[in-house]
Amino acid sequence: MGVKRIIAKVLGRAVTWNKLPFGTAIVAAAGSSERMEGEDKLFADLCGLPVLGWSLRALEASPNVHEIIVVTREDSIVPTADLCAELEITKATKILCGGEDRLSSVLIGLAEASPDAEYIAVHDGARPLVTEEIVADAFSKAYKYNAACPGVPVNDTVKRVSDGFVTDTPDRSAVYAVQTPQVFSADVLKAALHNAKIKKLKITDDCGAAEAIGIKPAVSLGSYENIKITRPVDLKLAEAIIEARRAK
Ligand code: C5P
Q1: Residue 97 CA, ligand 1 centroid: distance in Å
Q2: Where are the beta strands (DSSP E) in the chain?
Q3: Do 127 and 180 meet the contact criterion of CB atoms below 8 Å apart?
Q4: What's the gap in Å between 206 CA and the centre of ligand 1?
Q5: Is residue 1 part of a domain?
Q6: Domain presence at residue 99
Q7: Which structural domain, as residue segments, surrounds residue 25?
Q8: What's the pLDDT tens digit per position in 95-117?
Q9: Whose CA is nearest to atom 3 of ligand 1?
Q10: How far is the CA of 62 from the CAs of 139, 167, 217, in angstroms?
Q11: CATH code for the domain in which residue 191 is found
Q12: Residue of the nearest CA to atom 6 in ligand 1?
């Protein structure tokens, strides 16, 4: 019998060890899907389930996540509520109408997070292939370092380009492609996003906002399979990845 179980027995009651801090997941799903020819990509069929459904199921299954806030397009609010009911996403507490850019959408979700939220994950609804392991590692790194993003080393050589000409080649070994969910202590995310909004920073991810206030996010477990559905070809790739996972 382990030490923890012996102490629990002596105390004569069940003791909850290592209770996880309250975690909120904000799902950014209010994009215009311009590169998907206007169709809301979050509702595109992916092996029998809308793209957004896959993301919601992964977050629902995570013990680190206690509430899910979905920020979506106005015309997708009712379909999102129906999807949550159908998939029994019991942690989904709010479905909100997003803003004109991603930062505004995340801020709308953040304003509605539970006051109990100690850690907040921001996930692109358009990343349906996220796994429980990726979510768990991002949270556990955020518990330690206040900010974390899943990342993978880039395979291609990356160039900095200006006016159609290469100006610079960053050292490839130091360049990572980062993904979501990105996880933060609640105070850090609030300070970072409000600063980005006030200063009109051109950020493309939430860690970028944290970096701008001097935070150094940790890189957590990422995956080359955790792709973002951006163009029609990405759906085909996602289908192939799901089929390969099912065949395992
Ligand atoms: O446009 P992009 O694919 O980079 O968007 C990343 C995520 O942010 C998507 O899941 C998209 O739905 C979301 N988004 C949002 N509100 C916006 C723009 C994008 O929630 N105004």
Answers
A1: 12
A2: 23-29, 45-46, 49-50, 67-72, 92-97, 119-124, 147-153, 160-162, 165-168, 176-178, 182-185, 218-221
A3: yes
A4: 12
A5: no
A6: yes
A7: 20-247
A8: 999 999 999 999 999 999 999 99
A9: 230
A10: 10, 43, 21
A11: 3.90.550.10
A12: 124
Question: What rounded mean pLDDT belongs to the chain?
Answer: 93
- pLDDT bucket at 36, cuts 50 / 70 / 90: confident
Number of domains in the chain: 1
Are 123 and 28 spatial neighbours (Cβ–Cβ below 8 Å)? Answer: yes
Please report the atom of ligand 1 found closest to the CA of residue 71: 20
Pocket lined around ligand 1, Cβ cut-off 6 Å: 28-31, 71, 98-102, 105, 124-126, 228, 230
Evaluate if pTM is beyond 0.90.
yes
Cα-to-centroid distance, 192 and ligand 1 (Å): 18
Question: Dmax of the chain from CA atoms?
Answer: 72
> What's the number of CA atoms in the CB half-sphere (13 Å) around residue 56?
29
Residue 82 lies in a domain: yes
Query: What does the alpha-carbon distance between residue 121 and residue 25 come to, in Å, rounded to a whole number?
Result: 5
Pocket test for ligand 1, best of 75, 124, 228, 229 (most atoms within 8 A of CB): 124
Q: Tell me whether residue 10 is in a domain.
A: no
